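Can't paste images in this forum, so I'm doing it all in text. The chain is below; anyone willing to post the predicted C-alpha cells underneath?
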Amino acid sequence: MKVLIADDHHVVRRGLLFFLKTQKDIEVIGEAVNGKEAVEMAKELQPDIVLMDLMMPVMDGIQATRKIKEQNPHIVILMLTSFSDRDHVVPAVEAGAAGYQLKDIEPDELVASLRSLMRGENTLHPKATSELMKGPVEPPAHTVNLLTPREQEVLFELTKGKSNREIASALFVTEKTVKTHISNIFTKLGVQDRTQAALYAVKHGLTEPAQ
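Text version of the structure:
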C-alpha cells in the first residue's frame, strides 16, 4: 500500500517513516508538513492511505481530510492525533476519516490499522469509540426508516467494528450478502464508508439490534 504522511512535527514524521519502511507491504511515497500540502500531494501522488495529523498550520487535518475526499474519494484517511474527545473525533469522521487512532498507539497496532483500512474495515481507538458511543447528538432522521430490519442488524454489527466475515457469522448469512447490505446502507444513508455508517448509527440511536 502507498502511504502519505501528513504531520507538522519533524520528529513524528521521522519516527513513522522509520518504522513503516520496515514493512514489506507499505511504501511511504511522501511527507506533508501541513494540511494544504497534504491536499496537494494527495492529488499528485494518489496514495492509498493518508496518515493525517489533526492539528497542523495553514490547514488542519479535518479541513484537509474533507478536501482530499472531495477530490479523491478512493483515498483512505487515517487520523493520527493526540486528541480523543468527541469534539475532535466526530468532525474528523464526518469529514471522511475512515480511521481514528492516537499517537500513543504501538507501532504494530498502527500497521494493523493500516491493513484493516485497506480491507475496507473501520479502525477506531477505544477512546475514540467511547466518545462516539456516549449517545445520540441529534434526533432520529426519517432516512433511518429506509433501512430494512436486516440492514439495521448489519449496521448494528458495524458499530462494533466487525469485519464482513464476522458479521456474516453473527447473522448466519454469506459474506456476499453482507457486502450487498453494506452497499445498500451506504447508499441509503449517504455515507462513504463503514466508519461514517457507524457514526450515523450512534447519532441516530441505532446502536441496538433491530426489533
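The CA atoms of residues 82 and 102 lie 5 Å apart. The chain has a mean pLDDT of 86.
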